[in-house]
Design brief:
This protein has 123 residues and is mainly α. Helix content is 49%, strand content 0%. The longest helix is centred in the middle third of the chain and has 22 residues, at 48-69. It is globular, with a radius of gyration of 16 Å.
Length: 123
């Protein structure tokens, strides 16, 4: 996926600010916590190919975070999810909590680490 020049991976700042491209325009995320099902016709569906690429990057991002932090401290996804769920921002979490997980404290440095991980795991 990373080698596809027609669909380059977005930088982390863009990726982390992205809405799911498979969600149709105007459809908001469910307000209630828990499982939610939304039925829609194929004509109402968002861009399925862009959604598949988005989900693939989400999986790669989660894999990266877990692998990059495993030696320092477990629980990175829980820590990050808790901060986001309480209304926090990723860059704030990174600045004050990232180093405890062995991550850099700023997005440009994390972008370099992420791209290096992608290069090392490709192929």
């Amino acid at each position: 996926m990373r080698a596809d020049p027609a669909h380059p991976l977005p930088g982390l700042a863009d990726f982390l600010a992205m809405a799911n491209p498979a969600r149709p325009d105007g459809q908001t995320a469910p307000a209630a916590k828990g499982v939610s099902l939304v039925y829609r016709s194929p004509a109402e569906a968002g861009d399925a190919a862009a959604g598949a690429r988005y989900y693939a990057q989400v999986q790669g991002w989660a894999d990266f975070l877990v692998q990059a932090t495993a030696a320092a401290r477990p629980g990175v996804l829980g820590s990050l999810s808790g901060r986001i769920a309480s209304g926090g921002r990723f860059d704030d979490w990174l600045a004050d909590t990232g180093p405890a997980f062995g991550l850099p404290d700023n997005l440009p440095a994390l972008e370099r680490q992420w791209r290096a991980w992608l290069d090392a795991t490709a192929g």
